[in-house]
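Case study 2.
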Amino acid sequence: MRFFFGWWIVFVMSAVMFVTTGTFFYGFATLVDPLNEEFGWSHALIGGAFSLRSEMGGIEGPIVGYLIDRLGPRILLVTGVALVGIGFLFLSQVHAIWGLYAAVVVIALGMGATGGPVAYTAIAHWFVKKRGRATALVTLGGGASGVMAMVLAALITAYGWRTAVFVVGLAQMAICIPLALTVRRQPEDMGLAPDGESPLEDPLLAEKELGEDGSSATEEGQSIHRQGATMGQALRRSNFWFLGIAMALAGLGSMGLVVHQISYLKKSVGFSAEGAAQVATAMTIISLAGRLGFGYLSDFVDKRKLLAVAYLLMGLGILAFAGIQSAWHVVFYLALFSPGWGASITVRPVLQAECFGLRAFAGIQGLMFLISSVGSVAGPIFVGAVYDASGEYRLAFLITAVAALVAAPTVLLMSSPKPAEEAKDVIVVA
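Prediction:
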C-alpha cells in the first residue's frame, strides 16, 4: 500500500507545533516566578506579556490567513519558525520590561505562522473524510509539547532562565526549518487526491481528469478552485459570531489558568517548582486523549455538540482547579479540564471547515482568532491582577470558570451546517 504524503504533512505540522508554539505557550508559566524574582515585575505585568502574544496573534490572524490562502503554508511556516527562534534568543537578553514585551511580539508574529492557523489549513486541504482524525493527530504535537514546561523548568533550575530560553531558541530553528521546507500546499499539486484515495475514486480529481466536455484536466487553463464562504459572507452569518464568541469565553478561562497555574500551585497549594511543572505537563499529556477521542468522533458525530461538551469540561475543570486544597485534588482538575481542553483544540477547526468550506478557510479562521483574542488577552491579565490585589488566585479562577461554562450553550446556538453548493470544490477555467 502506497504511503500517502498527507500523513507526512500531519507529522511535520505536529512536530513544528511541538517544538515552537507549544514551548512558549506552556513554557511561559515557568518564567513567571523567575522574572518576578529578578526584576520585581508584578504578576499582572508579566501575564500581560503573554496576553500580548494572544493579542498579536489575533491582530495578525486575518493577515496570516489571507497569506496562507494565497501563498500556501510552506513560506509562512519557514518564516514563522525563524521568527520564533529569534524571539527566544532576544528574550534571553532582556533587562527591562519593554525588552520582554518586544521579544514576545517577535515570538507572537512567528507563532502566528507556525501554529494552528497554518496547520489546520493544510490539513483541511489534504483530508476530507478523515479530516477530524488528521486534525487530532496534528494537535498531538501541541499537546505533547507540555513536556517542554518540565524541560524548561529543569534547564532554568540548572543553568538559569536566560541560558534555558537561548538553548530553546537555537534548537527550534535547527529542527523545524528543514522540516518546514518539505511541506506542500495540497494533494492536487502532487497529482494526489485528498485522504489518499486514488484519483479515479475521488470525484474532485475524476472531474479534473475528464472535464465536463471530456477534455483532459491537465490541459492548460483548468485548475481546482476551492469553494465555500468568503470572509465577507462568513461575517454575515450568525454561526461565525456564535463560534467566535464561544472561543473568546473559553479563552478567558483557559488562558488565565495556563499562564498562572504553576505560580498558583506553588503559592496557594504548596507545590515545588518541579512538582507544579509536572502538573502542567500532565494536563497537556492527558489532553491528548481528548484530542484523539473527540477528533475521531468529529468525523461521525455533530461537531457542535462535541465542542459544547469540550467547553463544559473545561469550565468544570477550572472550578475544580480553584478548589484545590491538597496535592491529590489535582486529579479532579486533570480529569475534567485536560480532555476538554484537548477536545476543543481539535473540534473547532473541523467544525469551521464544515460550516464555511475551504475557499477562505485560513482567512475566516484568522478573523475568529481576532475575536477570541479578546478573551485570551483578558484572562492572564485579569487573573494576575486579582492575585496582585488580594494575594490569592481562587476568586479569579471561579470567575473565569463561569465564562468557560457559558461558552458551551453559546456553541449550541449555532445552526446545523447545511451542505451547500458553495462549500464544494469544483473545477473552474482559469
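Residues 200-225, 419-430 have pLDDT under 50 and may be disordered.
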